[in-house]
Amino acid sequence: MSVIDADTREDFSVRASFRVWGPAPNSQPPRLGVLNPHELTALLGILPSSAHKQGDLPQNNPNEGFTWAQEPWSAGMWEVNSDYRVHSRNLVDHLIWLLDLLDSVKDQLREYIDRNDLEADFFCLIQVEDYTGLRLQPEVLKRLTAINVPLGVEIYS
Question: Who's near 89: CB < 8 A, 6+ residues apart?
Answer without folding.
Answer: 6, 7, 9, 12, 13, 14
